[in-house]
Amino acid sequence: MASPARVDLDGNPIKPITICMIGAGGFIGSHLCEKLMAETPHKVLAVDVYNDKIKHLLEPASLPWADRIQFYRINIKHDSRLEGLIKMADLTINLAAICTPADYNTRPLDTIYSNFIDALPVVKYCSENNKRLIHFSTCEVYGKTIGSFLPKEHPLRNDPNFYVLKEDASPCIFGPIEKQRWSYACAKQLIERLIYAEGAENGLEFTIVRPFNWIGPRMDFIPGIDGPSEGVPRVLACFSNNLLRCEPLKLVDGGQSQRTFVYIKDAIEAVLLMIENPARANGQIFNVGNPNNEVTVRQLAEMMTEIYSKVSGEPPLEVPSIDVSSKEFYGEGYDDSDKRIPDMTIINKQLGWNPKTSLWDLLDSTLTYQHRTYAEAIKQAIAKPVASS
Ligand SMILES: NC(=O)c1ccc[n+]([C@@H]2O[C@H](COP(=O)([O-])OP(=O)(O)OC[C@H]3O[C@@H](n4cnc5c(N)ncnc54)[C@H](O)[C@@H]3O)[C@@H](O)[C@H]2O)c1
Ligand SMILES: O=c1ccn([C@@H]2O[C@H](COP(=O)(O)OP(=O)(O)O[C@H]3OC[C@](O)(CO)[C@H]3O)[C@@H](O)[C@H]2O)c(=O)[nH]1
């Protein structure tokens, strides 16, 4: 019996499309490719400089979706094939970026080029060829909350008007120029403004996504195992690395910053709704996060320590965490977002999307994956004698 036709949120049949996905080999891209291959008839032209995280979708040729995904090893900084791929597709999704905080203040030029200059041709080709664009921005465009400028004990700090981040109302508050941490957020903000202007002046059909700390399997790398030994990934991978190596977790500036974490699989559902409901998603900027999963970084460390002990069967460390200054950990010019609570009104109204997974459950499945994927390799790396010079 034929499977029932897939319909959009307004009951219209969904037609198969071709998607040019730039940055398809990264964390979010790999989950989006998986979803598109397993649950939809759409085709993906997967563009990236790496493909390790999507190898399982590209080989062997007998995979049921083999004729619906093609990988193009392209650096979008300098490759004339990019425009041709955008022309071949109905929709372009741009995920490509330098987006790890350790890079923002240490490689500020690469960060600005990657998040603004390199995205320009993508926007231009979409606009000139009348192609729809879904562009990945960040929650970091909001910067610091208004409440963070009030004295610590001020009652208005507890008023949501002073901290909830709304796409169409909140200001974008960055630190001074020498705090190069904000170069990333600033580059992302300018490309958002450019895309918005292309929509207003030239009719570009666009959707901007502002992810709020999406986490899950395949995020970043474990230093010395599948990434550089001295590399500093985002917090999930930093803490996973510490737990796998039985080292105390490092809390930057006391771990007082707050984050809301959303499970990658919930967030990908939201992106699929955007892809398949253009009439509801075009012209919109969407926060995508889980306001119910808020913790301080210190609480995150405590939770991960407890869950990892359960998953690995090893007792928690006697000294589970240590404090480090941001200067020591990230270098000169680091600064931080104090709190990130997404307002969900627009995504609820347009797409009816809500996240489902609790922080405990998403950390449980993610740390189970980390342990299964890395514990043995770490054990071997630690056992290996250091080569004498
Ligand atoms: N993960 C999150 O929680 C989060 C939060 C906020 C914003 N974002 C945004 O979402 C997007 C994807 O994030 P991610 O977490 O998957 O990051 P990621 O680093 O895992 O993925 C980015 C991918 O882009 C590729 N890329 C970078 N420059 C390229 C170039 N010049 N040519 C071709 N490919 C290039 C990288 O190789 C990488 O595979 C980024 O734009 C990021 O700013 C993510
Ligand atoms: O070992 C560590 C690593 C980090 N921290 C602190 O954790 C907080 C979160 O850090 P991280 O996940 O690296 O990134 P941010 O949330 O600060 O920024 C990201 O948000 C979205 C995105 O745009 C893309 O992912 C990116 O910029 C932070 O307070 C660190 O200081 C720690 O204590 N110990």
> Cα distance, first to last residue?
67 Å
Task: Identify every distinct bound molecule in the structure, by name, code or SMILES.
Answer: nicotinamide-adenine-dinucleotide, ligand LM6KSONS
**Beta content:** 5-15%
Largest sheet data: 7 strands, parallel
Number of helices: 14
The CATH topology annotation reads as Rossmann fold
Radius of gyration, CA atoms, in whole angstroms: 21 Å
Low-confidence stretches: none
Structural category is: alpha/beta
Strand order of the largest sheet: 3-2-1-4-5-7-12
Query: What's the CATH architecture name?
Result: 3-Layer(aba) Sandwich
Please, what is the CATH homologous superfamily? NAD(P)-binding Rossmann-like Domain
List the helices and strands and how they pair.
Elements: E1 18-22, H1 27-39, E2 43-48, H2 55-58, E3 69-73, H3 81-88, E4 91-94, H4 101-104, H5 108-115, H6 120-128, E5 132-136, E6 164-165, H7 182-202, E7 206-211, E8 214-215, H8 235-244, E9 249-252, E10 258-260, E11 262-263, H9 264-276, H10 278-281, E12 284-288, E13 294-296, H11 297-312, E14 321-324, H12 326-330, E15 341-342, H13 345-351, H14 359-383
Bound molecules: nicotinamide-adenine-dinucleotide and the ligand O=c1ccn([C@@H]2O[C@H](COP(=O)(O)OP(=O)(O)O[C@H]3OC[C@](O)(CO)[C@H]3O)[C@@H](O)[C@H]2O)c(=O)[nH]1.
Residues 99, 101, 138-140, 213, 234-235, 238, 250-252, 255, 257, 259, 297, 336 line the site of the ligand O=c1ccn([C@@H]2O[C@H](COP(=O)(O)OP(=O)(O)O[C@H]3OC[C@](O)(CO)[C@H]3O)[C@@H](O)[C@H]2O)c(=O)[nH]1.
